[in-house]
Each structure stands twice: as structure tokens, then as C-alpha cells.
Amino acid sequence: MGKFLDYNPDQAYLLPPSVRDVLSPGHLCFFVRGVVAKLNLAASETSTEQKAGPLRAGDVGFGLAVRLRAGSDQFARLEQRIREDLAFRYLAGGRRRIIGR
Question: Does residue 12 belong to any structural domain of this protein?
Fold first, then answer.
């Protein structure tokens, strides 16, 4: 057995099954998700639906969670962060586009 672990960045299973295996329990993304989960977004979903067409459940919450997290660090490129940052990917629930873009 070798002294070092195998290096294979092209492996199919690069990320853990749960972001909680990587991010600490006190990570900001879990706090943001908890706050958004407690909000009543029904009025926002109705208002947004009138402007943007039918929404899937959670679209307003996902957009708000990602924007709150981004605002805390003043990130300008949200879609890039959603693709590349595990915390943003968690908050976006795997989506890759921001509402209205």
C-alpha cells in the first residue's frame, strides 16, 4: 500500500452525497436556508408568477436564498457561484439559472 491516496480529479464521485459532509454545521448557507424556509413566500410566488409565468414550487425561495447568501459576500456572478461553489449549489437545490435571467 502506498503512502499517498490516489489522485483522480476526473472520478465520477467527486462530491460527497451530502454537503453536510463538507461544510461545517455553522456554515452561513445553512442559516440562510433556515431563514428562507421560515418565510411565507406565497404572496411573492403569486406576484412573480404574474410577471414571469408559472413557477415551480420553491423558485422564489431558491432565488431569495441564493441572493441572500451572495449579498453577504457581495458576489456579482451568481450563476458561476451556483455551478462552482458547493454552498451555492446546496442553496439552489441543483438549479443552474437565476430567476428572470
Answer: no
User: What's at 58, amino acid-wise?
Assistant: G
SS (H, E, C) the chain: CCCCCCCCCCCCCCCCCCHHHCCCCCCHHHHHHHHHHHCCCHHHHHHHHHHHCCCCCCHHHHHHHHHHHHHHHCCCCHHHHHHHCHHHHHHHCCCCCCCCC
In a domain, 86, yes or no: yes
Domain that holds residue 76: 23-92
| Structural domain includes residue 53 | yes
Cell of 23: 461544510
d(CA 76, CA 67): 10
Q: In this model, does residue 83 exceed pLDDT 60?
A: yes
pTM for the full predicted model: 0.53
Is residue 56 one of the residues assigned to a domain? yes
* Number of domains present in the structure of the chain: 1
